[in-house]
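Forum > Structural Biology > Help requests

Title: Can anyone predict the 3D structure of DUF1830 domain-containing protein?

Hi all, first post here. I have the sequence for DUF1830 domain-containing protein but no way to get a structure on my laptop. I'd be grateful if someone could post the structure tokens.
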Amino acid sequence: MAKMLLNSTLEEQVKNDHAFPHILCFHSNSTPYLQIIKLINCKDFELERVLFPQERLMFTAAPEAQLEITTCQNGFPGRPERISCDRLQVQVSESRSYPQSIAS
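Reply #1:
Sure, ran it for you. Structure tokens for DUF1830 domain-containing protein below:
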């Protein structure tokens, strides 16, 4: 599970809305190629988009959902890879501590 401190409305929604049965997830395209990502096995949400190299994305999903990632090399899509969203979950922290230079 990735550990991150966040400052966003998405974090607040996940942390404060107990009727919101979703988890906060993070994916980074660390390849030099375009990736097409699609959320599957999720009835409530739809997500399909292109991620450029080094682009990062935070999103919410049901814990049982999967992220399907297709990396495109030389203009052709490769074989899709599926990752369980519970493996992409970001830990939302109750306390925040920022370096002095950021907080001022």
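The domain at 2-103 is CATH 2.60.40 (Immunoglobulin-like). The chain has a mean pLDDT of 79.
Shout if anything looks off.
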